[in-house]
Amino acid sequence: MPYPVRRKIAAPLLSITTGLLLWLSWPDKGFTPLIFIAWVPLLWAEHHFSGTGRNWNGLKIFGNFFLAMLIWNVLTTWWIWNSTDAGSVIAFCLNALLMAIVLQLFYLTKKKQGSFQGYLALVLYWIAFEYLHLNWDISWPWLTLGNAFAVHPDWVQWYQFTGVLGGSLWVLLVNLVIFQLLKTLWYRDLLLRIRRINAIIISASALFLLILPLFVSLYRYRHYQESGHPVKVAVIQPNIDPYHEKFRGNEAEQLAVLLRLASTVVDDSTSYVIGPETSLPDGIWEDELSMNKSILTIRRWMMPYPRLVMITGLASFKAYSLTERPSPTARKFKDADVYYDAFNSAIEIDSSPDLQVYHKSRLVPGVEKMPYPKIFGFLEKYAIQLGGTSGSLGKQSQRVNFVSPDGMKVAPAICYESIYGAFMSGYIRAGAQFIAVITNDGWWGNTPGYRQHMQYARLLAVEFRKCIARSANTGISCFINQRGDIISQTGWWKEDALTATIYANNRITFYARFGDYIGMVCSFLSISLLVFLAMRKVVGFN
Q1: DSSP code string of 363-379
Q2: Higher pLDDT, 227 or 444
Q3: What SS3 class is residue 485?
Q4: Could you give the CA distance from residue 153 to residue 170 in angstroms, rounded to a whole number?
Q5: Of 144, 250, 388, 432, whose Cβ has the fewest other Cβ atoms within 10 Å?
Q6: What is the mean pLDDT of the chain?
Q7: ∠ CA 395-401-404 to the nearest 5 degrees?
């Protein structure tokens, strides 16, 4: 077979291999160590096959980048298809396209500036992209490289200093060093002695980069002692079908299931009971909360337990008076010139007369909001349909903890919010002592989706050294300790209630204080580098 033909075949095969390795390394069933070599085939393809003449141009390089990223996206998040076919195809292709653009920028930088600058740019560009993906309207951080260690929180106990972007940096650096080692051993036109010296140096670097963070983490994991005071918490999993039951107007029946299950585990020593997202699905006007039948039912049930606090989810509405300025997400009543907002909310109910409400703020693109509606409004017909309130929901700009009558502060995270470390850090800086995650993970069926979502919460516990009580309507309800260990958990598609004693503390980790500083630094350096390259091109320097 002619050499150029072999190149044409080998490049797509290498790209496919990277996509497969990324998938095979991913939670919750993947073999995590593969993440440290997953990028090597794609790096090899770019190095060995780019810049070899007219038959291998930048467009073909981009095609191979896109192929690798598309395979990773489809095989890892295929479960989105269970909700919408057309919407999932758009999600797969758009995310793969964004990733391929990042890799194409790396290729162009390497071509103009040389190998060292190019590989440095790859690290900067990719982490800057992940940081952007955590903060813009088309946010989808599910495939942030640092999430690969969700099933092994004992490997990344240093996330309390770096967050998951520190894990992404680790993955990229190890892949680059292993790639350089293979490249040194492969080419035979170098002097044998030089090759041996280079191989020894690069091998030592690879071992150092891989082993040192792992050793430090395992040491911290084995010696970490949970801090704080004990709190007995119950989590409830009502297991109500989100497609056929949840939003069909049977709120009283669903509440009865929730309270029946809670009664099996709550006693005088229980401080908190956590219910799942949209436990009260019918929609309640917020100025009528204290008079609502479901809220009054909960209060009556809680009367024998005066110390008990309940946190659960609801759909809520807020009406704007004629003198108030509606929010950008407000909807207009059909029969009046008045506006209102719809929210996916959490509520705290306790012995005090006041009710505390939090509105979900990290909304799922294509589900709870249309990102950049002036640009992507034409895609609204492909939006993922998940029941409940349709259209863009309102949100809350500030992180506000729920505060119990005895002063305990709890961070309420609704579903998708629990994978945003820097976002959640606002609760921790405001004094949250543990995290309550309320979610509904049954949309995707018995697939990796709900399991990945639960595993990602283990990284959140490490980032903040906070215990997590997680209540899922369907999916997995569980307790997670400050090391990221799962203390106990429910099964899939099963009514259940769990109780555990967790530890509440006032600790503020380095990451909680400074957030995604790695992403901010990489973004600044990436923008500076791209501006520099653009200016060089404008003024005509090569």
Answers
A1: PPBTTTB-SSHHHHGGG
A2: 227
A3: coil
A4: 14
A5: 250
A6: 89
A7: 135
> Across-strand partners of 285?
317
125 class by beta-carbon count within 10 Å (0-12 exposed, 13-18 middle, 19+ buried): buried
Question: DSSP class of residue 36?
Answer: G
Q: Are 83 and 449 in contact (CB under 8 A)?
A: no
Tens digits of residue pLDDT in 342-374: 999 999 999 999 999 999 999 888 778 777 665
- Can you tell me the distance from the alpha carbon of 336 to that of 322, in angstroms, rounded to the nearest whole number? 11
pLDDT of residue 295: 97
The predicted structure's pLDDT at residue 247: 59
Rounded Cα distance between 403 and 434, Å, is: 11
Q: What is the DSSP string of 411-474?
A: EEEEGGGGG-HHHHHHHHHTT--EEEEEE---TT-SSHHHHHHHHHHHHHHHHHT--EEEEESS
Question: Looking at domain 229-316+345-362+398-506, what is its CATH homologous superfamily?
Answer: Carbon-nitrogen hydrolase (3.60.110.10)
| Res 19: pLDDT | 98
Residue 302 in contact with residue 308, Cβ under 8 Å?
yes
- What is the Cβ-side half-sphere exposure of residue 465, based on CA atoms within 13 angstroms? 23
**Section 17-31 average pLDDT:** 96
Whole-angstrom distance, CA of residue 76 vs CA of residue 123: 22
Q: How many residues does the chain have?
A: 542
Question: What are the distances in angstroms from CA 285 to CA 282, 299, 318, 347, 364?
Answer: 10, 18, 6, 13, 23
Give every CB contact of residue 484 below 8 A, 6+ residues apart in sequence: 153, 154, 157, 458, 459, 461, 462
What residue type is assigned to position 152 of the chain?
H
